[in-house]
Amino acid sequence: MGMTMAEKIIARAAGVDSAKAGDIHTVELDRLMSNDGTTHLTIDMCNKLKHPHIQDVNKLVWIVDHNIPSDSPKTAASHKKMRDFAREHGITFYEGEGVCHQVMMENHVCPGELIFGADSHTCAYGALGAFGTGVGCTDYLYAMVTGTSWLLVPETLRFNLTGKLPEGVYARDLILTIIGRIGANGANYKAMEFAGEGLKTLTMSDRISICNLCVEAGAKTALMEVDDVALSYLKEHGREPKALFTSDPDASFAAVYDIDLSEIQPIVAKPHFVDNVVPAKESLGVHIDEAFLGSCNNGRIEDLRVGASIIKGKKVHPLVRFLVVPASRAVYKQAAEEGLLDIFMEAGAIVMNPNCSVCWGSCQGVIGEGETLISTGTRNFKGRAGHRDSFVYLASAATVTASAITGEITTADMLK
Amino acid sequence: MGKLFRFHNDVDTDQIIASQYLLFPTIDEMKTYTFESLDPDFSKKAKPGDFVVACENFGCGSSREQAPAVLKALGIKAVIAKSFARIFYRNAINIGLPVIVCKDLYDHVQDQDEMELDLEAGTIVSGGQTFTCTKLPAKMQSILDQGGLIASLNKED
Fold this sequence. Notes:
The complex is a heterodimer of chains A (416) and B (157).
Chain A: H1 5-14, E1 24-28, E2 31-35, H2 39-47, E3 60-64, H3 73-89, E4 92-95, H4 100-107, E5 114-117, E6 131-134, H5 137-146, E7 148-152, E8 156-162, H6 171-182, E9 191-195, H7 197-200, H8 204-212, E10 221-224, H9 228-236, E11 255-260, E12 267-269, E13 277-279, E14 290-294, H10 295-298, H11 301-311, E15 321-325, H12 329-337, H13 340-347, E16 350-351, E17 372-375, E18 391-394, H14 397-406
Parallel strand pairs in A: 2-3, 2-5, 3-4, 5-6, 8-9, 8-11, 9-10, 14-15, 14-17, 15-16, 17-18
Antiparallel strand pairs in A: 1-7, 12-13
Helix pairs in contact in A: 2-5, 6-8, 11-13, 11-14
Chain B: E1 2-6, H1 13-16, H2 27-30, H3 42-45, E2 51-54, H4 66-73, E3 78-81, H5 86-94, E4 99-101, H6 105-108, E5 114-118, E6 123-126, E7 129-132, H7 138-145, H8 149-155
Parallel strand pairs in B: 1-2, 2-3, 3-4
Antiparallel strand pairs in B: 1-5, 5-6, 6-7
């Protein structure tokens, strides 16, 4: 019996010839990412160990992104704890460089690696053929001390992509469609693997967006075959693959879905669940107070180009705050060079430093009681973006920008 | 015997503890805000030995370990659901908070009912009825038995 990509990566990390879904293996981790959402607690637990220890400091990457710059003395204290510990132990440390997953994709992730991230959207790394999975700080600390962990080998849901996304339809519409179809726990404990001719039509930005959101269907990880698009991204960023894996033709999948990209249309996920999706056309006219273009899901240069092309020469609706938050410093600089930031600012948008922003509801831009946000962020849970009685709609960069202009949910084609 | 607090499907970790409290220095400072969006008085009403009962996919969303940690800090004895999201499940076991799959309990109890859990026997008694729980996988049971994952780390010299 052949193996899936997920099985092959785990077998490699476990130092065994083969692995199959349902097995439990002790694995050697290649990389360990942690951010300011939980690292202060990890440090406290580490300091209480009988024998505090870091197995290999080179595996660790710590990134302050969730609340940067800090919003309160309490946050500042947690950041200081993280900064001081990183400096003391020589841990690779980023602060203000961007949202953790974007920073990881730009600087660290290599195909074939097994990566733990103390953040659920670590599954984004599958866009480069790496097995990334989210863990809590106890699992993180165990891996930090021992370099290892244990993993249940997941079953795989395989998505065969064909065709090409229509103009004005984006990767985000595709992954929201898939999550709507399989549900918020449709991939619980499973890997979601994407393959097929349709994958070749998707840019790296598209691929990151797709893999990143798979945890919203409960997935343990997301994986894509590494092709020329991924290899050239890697080369541009000065890295080499560790190992290239594809699923064998006779690999066993828990389910196989055939998705024709040409049939996807603009999608909106309504409050308060990511799988609560409808065609954007069915949500038109919903009043919004704020719009957010950014996040690890949709804050890359490609997304800012989409937004800028729609808003160029137009104005943000006077009753709307439009937050534009590039996902990393690299994206920010490129957007500045291309004149995109000027376009956003002339339109009346608020352009902010790279961070997790309102996507996680505890940075700048949180919304108040009864307010509605349309967002390219990752989640629309109740209270996710601020007050417990507020509302979040998820949509593509195009739909978010169009809505910022009109003050109500609007698709970009309606502005032409 | 403890009281049970009954929640619905797809309770995400943002509902258990919202983002704005996660960077507080300690779990004790966060626990007052447990389930704030669903029941702002939860932390006042819940007593040590009480239980959380839910339907499917409890703990979906963020990997924040603060979610099981605030429940444990409030003295919640166990979370019983029809199913759990995987990161929450793993985090809870890692910190020694029992998370128990029981397919039948949810449909037969009301919020604030009394219940008792026999963790070893894997049974729950509530309203005169006995419910059988699904056994923990052996790996998870061994982590729970030794008091969480960090306890195992302190044993390894």
